[in-house]
Write a structure and sequence with these properties.
The chain is of the alpha/beta class and about 300 residues long. The chain has one domain: Alpha/Beta hydrolase fold, catalytic domain (Rossmann fold). The chain contains 9 helices and 8 strands. It has an 8-stranded mixed sheet with strand order 1-2-4-3-5-6-7-8, with helices on both faces. Helix 1 packs antiparallel against helix 2, helix 3 crosses helix 9 and helix 4 crosses helix 5. The radius of gyration is 18 Å and the shape is globular. The protein starts with a helix and ends with a helix.
Length: about 300
């Protein structure tokens, strides 16, 4: 049962997203730049940054990024966090809260790339920007054994895609990845896309279909870089997938976990009863704090094993 305060935050999130739906449906004269700015400002107010962290803007091979540094940081430890938003409407400002809590718990510097988004920059630009930013960490000498990747929604899918791109480039793999509520199958053909539609208070199948259209352009929704359930995932590092039981993406996350496991990737899947899309944003809500704690433990354990 959500507290009254968390229910207010959820309602605030829904209200912040409503204008984006109007833009997608062509029912608003507001530009995407304006819509994104208002959405991010609203989420920054709803899910504020914790104390004990600092923020700065950095460049990662030409890609702007938010660098989050906790007061208590272990030198060399880095988390690369990929924000969500359907490749269309997310942004770093909306993630100061979650990235800040991640940084404090992991005692790591957290880099959040501000990749370009559709419809101005459709597929594959968001993926290309994100990979370029990730590769810049390798170029800067970050030790792969102290490097981990996490992300939510579209960013959760990109966790798997970025690890694949690192593998295919012949670079050392990061220690582990955590995919939060991953948008793993843009065909939207799974059971939960229909059964959970209307139950998840944050995402609907219709909204996802509209986002996918803006992002994909003429690219097939089954493209492995857009939908990692269709990708070659052999040889990837340990991966944790966390998904809410109420999510329309539930079946897709389960399929992604099965796909990873069948291809001999060490995989953990957590299904949280009653939880909704990216509930991790709700700092102070027990389920959000517990899920983040589990993610941090998973990453810490993987880094310890990688450095042994």
């Amino acid at each position: 049962m959500m507290s009254p305060e968390d229910q207010k935050r959820l309602a605030g999130w829904q209200n912040a997203a409503a204008p984006l739906g109007a833009i997608l449906l062509g029912q608003s004269t507001q530009s995407w730049e304006e819509g994104r700015a208002q959405y991010m400002s609203a989420l920054d107010r709803l899910f504020p940054a914790p104390e004990g962290v600092s923020f700065e803007t950095v460049e990662m091979d030409g890609v702007s990024a938010m660098l989050v540094t906790p007061d208590d940081v272990i030198d060399g430890k880095v988390l690369f966090y990929i924000h969500g938003g359907g490749y269309v409407h997310g942004g770093t400002l909306a993630y100061r809260g979650l990235a800040g809590r991640y940084a404090k718990a992991l005692k790591a510097r957290v880099y959040v790339p501000d990749y370009r988004q559709a419809p101005e920059h459709p597929y594959p630009t968001p993926l290309d920007d994100t990979y370029r930013a990730l590769k810049s960490l390798y170029d800067a000498g970050v030790a792969p054994t102290k490097l981990t990747i996490s992300g939510d929604s579209a960013g959760g899918a990109m966790v798997v895609t970025m690890m694949r791109k690192v593998r295919d480039a012949g670079l050392p793999l990061p220690a582990a990845g955590v995919a939060i509520s991953p948008w793993a199958d843009l065909t939207h053909s799974s059971k939960s896309q229909y059964e959970r539609d209307g139950i998840d208070p944050v995402c609907s199948r219709e909204f996802l279909m509209l986002l996918a259209k803006e992002f994909l352009g003429n690219t097939l929704p089954s493209d492995p870089d857009a939908s990692p359930v269709f990708a070659d995932v052999r040889g990837l590092p340990p991966t944790l997938i966390q998904i809410g039981e109420n999510e329309v993406m539930l079946s897709d996350a389960m399929r992604l976990a099965t796909h990873l496991g069948e291809n001999r990737v060490r995989t953990s899947l957590e299904i949280w009863p009653g939880m909704f899309h990216v509930w991790h944003l709700f700092g102070g809500m027990p389920e959000a704090d517990d899920a983040l704690r589990n993610a941090v433990f998973f990453l810490e354990d993987a880094m310890t094993k990688a450095q042994a």
